[in-house]
Amino acid sequence: MGLLSGKRPTDLGVRDGKLKPAPASPNCVNSQAQDPTHAIAPLAYKTTPDAALRALAEIVRATPRTRIVSQTNDYLYAEYESALMGFVDDVEFWLPSGEKIVHVRSASRLGHSDFGVNRKRIEDVRSRLTASGA
């Protein structure tokens, strides 16, 4: 990790059916957020939760400078590092039971603006997940 990676958050994960709320800064998207700055649609899938999570893990692993930090049967947490400066973004995927959606949260650890990187990332994952057939 680069000098601008920041510290790994200790308060991520699902608590009471929610991912961590977005901060006040615009460098985060969250499918559970209500405000337009942070809101993004959850991902959808057609297969089983296991197959969808496997597809997500493959998408993450195929992305340069990305590592899976933790994974359970319904949750995946990854770190994405920028190529130029080594900034790290924390990205979470949660598949709530009984729904065919994946709630997502993608947030920069440092700085204020991300120039839309987190939103673009999730939309890229959405496209790749759809293309996978999951």
**Which CATH architecture is right?**
2-Layer Sandwich
Strand content: 15-25%
The main pleated sheet reads as: 6 strands, antiparallel
Number of β-strand runs: 6
Label the structural class. alpha+beta
Count of helix runs: 2
Task: Name the overall outline.
Answer: globular
Any idea what the CATH superfamily is called? Kinase associated domain 1, KA1
CATH class category label: Alpha Beta
End-to-end separation: 31 Å
Topology diagram in text:
Elements: E1 28-30, E2 43-44, H1 49-61, E3 66-71, E4 75-81, E5 88-94, E6 101-108, H2 117-132
Antiparallel strand pairs: 1-6, 2-6, 3-4, 4-5, 5-6
Helix pairs in contact: 1-2
Task: Name some characteristics of this structure.
alpha+beta; 134 residues; 6-stranded antiparallel beta sheet; 25% strand; globular
Overview of the molecule:
- This protein has 134 residues and is of the alpha+beta class.
- The protein has a single domain, classed as Kinase associated domain 1, KA1 (TATA-Binding Protein), CATH 3.30.310.80.
- Helices cover 22% and strands 25% of the residues.
- The protein is built from 2 helices and 6 strands.
- It has helices at residues 49-61, 117-132; strands at residues 28-30, 43-44, 66-71, 75-81, 88-94, 101-108.
- Strands 1, 2, 3, 4, 5 and 6 form a 6-stranded antiparallel beta sheet that branches.
- Strand 3 and strand 4 (75-81) form a beta hairpin.
- Helix 1 (49-61) crosses helix 2.
- The radius of gyration is 14 Å and the shape is globular.
